[in-house]
Amino acid sequence: MKEDYGLEQKLSNITLGSKGASRSLDLEGIGKITKDSSGWTKLEPEVNSTDEDEASTYSLKSEAGNFECSVSGLRWVCQDKVSFKYQFCSSEEPMKRMEMMRYMPAGPLIDITVISGKLSEVYLPHWICIDDIPNILQKFAVLHIDDCGDVVEKVSEVTSSHVKLCEPVFSPRAPLVKKDFPVKIHCNVLIYSKAYASCTVLHVYLTPFDPALKETIDKKKKDFRFIEKPCPNEGLTMQQDFNLTADITAEICPEKITLTNDSQEKQHSIFFDVGFENPDSNFHLTLSQLNNGEPQLPPVWSCVIRKVELRNSGDSDVKETGGQPSVTGPLDLEHSSDEMHGVASIKTTKERLLKKLEDLRQEEFNRFNSCQTSAQDPKLKDNQLENTAEEETQWMNTDPESEQGDIFLVLNKLSFSECWMKMIITIAIF
């Protein structure tokens, strides 16, 4: 068994390093390899997720240099080639034990496994705003879960976004911060959207800047579309209440949310539920801190929700009761109802024409049947082609935004006098 020294003695040798660059955690990634002004080269990991109920595994390889994972913000320094993987771990049980020691989580619990090579330095991401923290040397620590249980270790460096491990020996680890003073944290506002035939629902989360929590919520919201928006510019105070408003008529529940550092298991069920009729224009969401129940100015965060973000947000034509596609307007060829249900986008001309045929109004479909009949009846063929030629002139002047104009854009490369027949005959051949 390792000898268990008192926490103050464990932390007595913490040294504070340079504050470094401002936080550059990028949850979505911006490519395979990118380099930012802080001198850290961002790498996008390979993600392996075999079971949606289990944590994903993130694999990374690098040459010698200074690197940062674009998903977690984990940083490492190596002198030669290295390969490793990591997973986010549930922090609920470990953090219950840490609360008894007057600590709370300051970053995600990450389990790192080195496959080949050696990591010279490792920096764990944290979400604590350190600018106003006095005596910071005594505030931070690292939880290390090994075969002997929980060990609280010192950190060798603290920056505005990371804590440095003294010895990069790996097992589940997470940065900690003491609970004996008011804490501000870097936050995320996560927005998930689901559209129906007549209304749209948003689920809006206010969370710590925690990539592990985002991974958990993403899996819970797999039937929703994630709408990415910037984070609040300033740190927000823990245990404060916040409310959300919209500049359109909307039902928002609950009236307020308390910003906490609770476990992932609790936080994924705490969000603003926003419901409104499908809007005709863009609108704004605004997040404000409450003081004695009243919103404070200026607001801590605001964003614009664009109409196009909602139109492309998933099951936009799925009725709330039936669950089946219900066409309520012209088909968007780039976002078909198949795509709304997770099927790959319709790419080929044949697929698009077939989908258009399925969604035509009955009157237009009858015109197709009429054309097909005339193709088989020589007596009707000449009259039908003459009528179709007249229609061609009308269609040329059709408003592109109308339903007929939408169809015309698909068919404009065909000889119009034969297009009605060619569509049906071509699809039948295929």
From TrEMBL:
It is found in: Cytoplasm, Cytosol. GO terms for cellular component: cytosol. Its main location: cytoplasm. GO terms for biological process: innate immune response. Residues 314-333 are annotated as: Disordered. Keywords: Cytoplasm, Immunity, Innate immunity. Residues 36-319 form the FIIND domain. InterPro entries: FIIND_dom (IPR025307), NLRP_Inflammasome (IPR051249). This is FIIND domain-containing protein.
